[in-house]
Amino acid sequence: MIIRSPEPEVKILVDRDPIKTSFEEWARPGHFSRTIAKGPDTTTWIWNLHADAHDFDSHTSDLEEISRKVFSAHFGQLSIIFLWLSGMYFHGARFSNYEAWLSDPTHIGPSAQVVWPIVGQEILNGDVGGGFRGIQRTSGFFQIWRASGITSELQLYCTAIGALVFAALMLFAGWFHYHKAAPKLAWFQDVESMLNHHLAGLLGLGSLSWAGHQVHVSLPINQFLNAGVDPKEIPLPHEFLLNRDLLA
């Protein structure tokens, strides 16, 4: 018989309202450094300002405070990524010829947008086919969207809105976990829980959800597209939830 000692209970400890939310420091560039806060002497000041803004080790020697700033900055970075994705999908829905390209990708080139005729820049627009003039894109985003099962500009708009919502949530999370409920140092040093969260939660569930999307959405839609079915005749995924007759 093997007698094992009970595993210690992991407690998530946080400090409530550790740092007051204020915009006053925003009006003092370089407030995190005594040298930079004195103001510019040469043009090097502006570069040092940007270089040291997120060099948290130079702000303080308190490991808990550094850990909190890094943790909060991660949410800020995720917010920027979601904002970038939102802009990419919105521009694809609003300014591109994605639906026309999807209907005939062999004879119609993918175009990102139309250059506005302000002072002659419209010379950059070219005939990409299908009566559309614009800049032909070679980044492969149209192919990525087709492979993921996107068949309409409506889906691009919805994805853009969803990414914008997640950007706001990440921005809120970064503020909340630094100003309202900041974890203690012991929480950051709990390596086992951190690995469980990242490997099982983010990587595991993320891979599982994407695999489910590939099996139930992407592959069936691409099978129809490869067979020459008009993209407009393919029901959108959410329509199967609203109209049960499509399952028959």
In short:
With 248 residues, the chain is mainly alpha-helical. The chain has helices at residues 34-37, 44-52, 56-59, 63-95, 98-103, 141-147, 153-180, 185-188, 191-226, 239-242, and strands at 14-16, 126-129, 132-134, 181-183.
Largest sheet: 2 strands, antiparallel
Question: Secondary-structure element sequence?
Answer: EHHHHHEEHHEHHH
Calculate the terminal CA-CA distance, rounded to whole Å.
57 Å
Overall pLDDT level: 90
| Low-pLDDT sequence parts | none
Keywords: Membrane, Mitochondrion, Transmembrane, Transmembrane helix
Protein name: Photosystem I P700 apoprotein A1
Transmembrane segments: 70-90, 154-176
InterPro entries: PSI_PsaA/B (IPR001280), PSI_PsaA/B_sf (IPR036408)
Can you walk me through this structure?
The protein is 54% helix and 5% strand. It has helices spanning 34-37, 44-52, 56-59, 63-95, 98-103, 141-147, 153-180, 185-188, 191-226, 239-242, and strands at residues 14-16, 126-129, 132-134, 181-183. The strands form two sheets. The protein has a two-stranded antiparallel ribbon. It has a two-stranded antiparallel ribbon with strand order 2-3. A hairpin with a 2-residue loop joins strand 2 (126-129) and strand 3. Helix 4 (63-95) packs antiparallel against helix 7.
